[in-house]
Specification:
Blueprint lengths: L1 H17 L3 H12 L4 H7 L9 H38 L17 H14 L4 E2 L5 E3 H4 L11 H4 L4 E3 L2 E3 L5 H9 L4 E10 L10 E11 L4 H16 L5 E8 L2 E10 L16 E10 L1 H6 L8 E8 H9 L12 H4 L4
Parallel strand pairs: 1-5
Antiparallel strand pairs: 2-4, 3-4, 5-6, 6-10, 7-8, 8-9, 9-10
Helix pairs in contact: 1-2, 1-4, 2-4, 5-11
The structure holds phenylalanine.
Phenylalanine binds next to strand 9 and strand 10.
């Protein structure tokens, strides 16, 4: 019997040490200590043992079980640690690999030019006013001396919500809002989106304008010319010249178109300036007395000038862009060029 027990013990210890992983170790445990395991079988032999020897036999088999169990537990600790290390190795992250970087976007060319224009005017002492894009006929037309059947409305057909509410056609609507709200001196710059029923290579149904309005005592066309002279030098370079041509807007009197000397040919005449040496950049004029009066500003005391330019137009000239629609098609190959 003693020999049989030593035998089982030796075999069990051997099997335990050969187990390569926890699963094999568990199988070994079943083989010896399980329901039909050899140690359990030994116990079952109890009934064939003489009664007086049974306690001793029981003790021996039990000791054997405890010894195997201890071996088993020790081996289990070793295998668990091995498995833990293996998992670590398998799941290790190679932090030396270069990461995936997100592409960095850039400001839209219109935003870039808008910011540039704003900066130029802030330097000249203007403050910003932003009016609503959904505007009343009252501010967009009527108060700007464009009554209901005025022909100027034809050139600025827009999108109507109802006969009184529309998408503004010009940032000039903001002039009225500012003058009704504030008493002179006024010196504001009003950038924003405007809308018209237009769509071709040089017109977009939505585009951006930048309005300027200065009202104070003794403002004349000279002040307008002086400010714009400064401004175009900042935007187009210090050799740029300006030229005023007579024009017509219902809300300015007199009205002018402002041209800059062509940045491409410097006045000699080329394709960009259509051979004239000059490029039109904005409309402007002295604020019509009717408009001042309508806004409660006494035209005998105060006068003002206003100007309005298309931001796309400035960007097109600055970057030589052939089609206004490129700005709004969101083709990254186009947009990427302005980083
Ligand atoms: N609002 C005019 C336009 O959209 C431009 C302008 C603004 C003209 C201010 C004169 C004074 O064409």
């Amino acid at each position: 019997m003693q020999e049989k027990i030593s035998n089982i013990k030796a075999l069990a210890i051997n099997d335990i040490n050969l187990a390569k992983d926890l699963k094999e170790l568990f199988d070994v445990k079943v083989k010896y200590l399980g329901k039909n395991g050899s140690v359990t079988e030994l116990m079952k032999g109890m009934k064939d043992i003489p009664k007086e020897d049974r306690p001793q036999f029981g003790k021996i088999v039990n000791d054997l079980r405890v010894e195997i169990e201890n071996e088993f537990n020790a081996r289990e600790v070793v295998l668990k640690e091995e498995e833990r290390l293996k998992t670590f190795e398998k799941e290790a992250i190679d932090i030396t690999l270069p990461g995936k970087s997100n592409e960095i976007g850039s400001l839209h060319p219109i935003t870039l030019v808008k910011n540039e224009l704003i900066n130029a005017f802030l330097g000249l002492g203007f403050e910003i006013f932003e009016g609503p894009e959904i505007e009343e006929d009252y501010y967009n037309f009527k108060m700007l001396n464009i009554p209901e059947d005025h022909p100027a409305r034809d050139m600025q057909d827009t999108f109507y919500f109802n006969p009184n509410i529309l998408l503004r056609t010009q940032t000039s609507a903001g002039q009225v809002r500012v003058m009704l709200d504030k008493k002179p001196p006024i010196k504001v710059l009003s950038p924003g989106k405007v809308y018209r029923s237009d769509d071709d290579a040089s017109h977009s149904p939505m585009f951006h304008q930048m309005e300027g309005l200065v009202v104070d005592k003794g403002i004349t066309l000279c002040d307008l010319k002086g400010t714009l002279d400064e401004f175009v030098k900042i935007i187009f370079g210090k050799d740029t010249k300006t030229r005023l041509r007579p024009s017509y807007f219902p809300f300015t009197e007199p009205s002018v178109e402002v041209d800059v000397s062509c940045s491409e040919c410097h006045g000699k005449g080329c394709k960009l300036c259509k051979g004239t040496g000059w490029i039109e950049i904005l409309g402007a004029g002295i604020v019509n007395k009717k408009v001042l009066e309508g806004c409660g500003i006494d035209p005998e005391v105060y006068s003002g000038y206003a100007f309005g330019m298309g931001i796309e137009r400035i960007a097109i000239l600055k970057y030589k862009i052939p089609d206004i629609r490129l700005f709004f098609e969101n083709d990254v190959r186009f947009l990427k060029q302005f980083k």
